[in-house]
Design brief:
It is elongated and about 55 Å long. It has 7 helices and 12 strands. The strands form 2 sheets. It has a 6-stranded mixed β-sheet with strand order 1-2-4-6-5-3. Strands 7, 8, 9, 10, 11 and 12 form a 6-stranded antiparallel β-sheet that branches. The chain has helices at about 30-35, 45-50, 70-75, 95-110, 145-150, 165-170, 190-200, and strands spanning about 20, 35-40, 65, 80-90, 110-115, 125-130, 140-145, 155-160, 175-180, 185, 205-210, 215-220. By secondary structure, the chain is an alpha+beta fold. The chain has a domain at about 25-35 and about 55-130. Keywords: Signal. This is PDZ domain-containing protein. InterPro entries: PDZ (IPR001478), PDZ_sf (IPR036034).
């Protein structure tokens, strides 16, 4: 998906409990410690998806702080426009592991990294990597499955809704099916994303289906990728 987004426009945007997959990054730290340090990227939030939606170019170094809990940190950062792009786990909590985390953060362009230490765990150190996005819409969306197309026809299904975004302010919800925008049928993810970009800064009317009920929602789109 392009924001899980498309985050979307996304971010697009990115689901709260998205699936992850293992990804190999060519960093010096990983080359030296790949058995002890493992990074998993959130599916649909690869660089090709995230980079066009960034609030700014990646910093030289991410902000690295001790986290509270993964759930609490996501709840805190999501309303600020940050999305989780990956997690790492480490067989030891030492200076080498923390250096690896910093290097991995640079490799994936993370803006913030949160650390979680648990001496009793098999992996006593873990980390979550976040990127801040600029959102026009504020929700991830995907093409309908074959079964969904039979049920709804054309459209896209929403995934994660980013807090304090155009989508959240319009009371859109995860799993809503958007069938039309300003009366024009939504043919799929790519077409929907194109229309969002064309109408940045405008108020659009979305025709949606939620739990079998037909609804309409007006959405004030952001004026640019930096303006919600």
């Amino acid at each position: 998906m392009k924001l899980r987004l498309t985050l979307l426009c996304c971010i697009a945007l990115l689901s709260g409990c998205a699936a992850t997959r293992s990804v190999v990054y060519e960093t010096p730290a990983e080359a030296a410690r790949d058995a002890a340090d493992r990074y998993e990227a959130v599916a649909g939030r690869e660089a090709a998806v995230i980079d066009p939606l960034r609030a700014a170019a990646p910093a030289a170094a991410a902000e690295i702080l001790a986290g509270k809990t993964p759930a609490a940190d996501q709840e805190l950062l999501t309303p600020q426009g940050y999305v989780l792009i990956g997690n790492s786990r480490h067989r030891s909590d030492d200076a080498a592991a923390r250096e690896w985390i910093a290097a991995q953060g640079r490799a994936v362009g993370a803006d913030k990294i949160r650390l979680y230490a648990d001496p009793a765990a098999a992996d006593p150190l873990s980390a979550a990597y976040f990127v801040r996005l600029r959102l026009v819409f504020g929700a991830s969306f995907r093409d309908l499955s074959a079964a969904e197309k039979k049920q709804f026809g054309a459209g896209v299904r929403l995934g994660e809704i980013v807090g304090d975004s155009p989508a959240s302010r319009a009371n859109l919800r995860s799993n809503d099916v958007i069938r039309a925008i300003d009366g024009q049928p939504v043919e799929g993810r790519t077409a929907f994303q194109a229309v969002l970009k064309q109408r940045m800064g405008k108020i659009v009317t979305l025709s949606i289906t939620r739990n079998g009920e037909a609804l309409q929602r007006k959405v004030q789109l952001g004026r640019s990728f930096g303006s919600d």
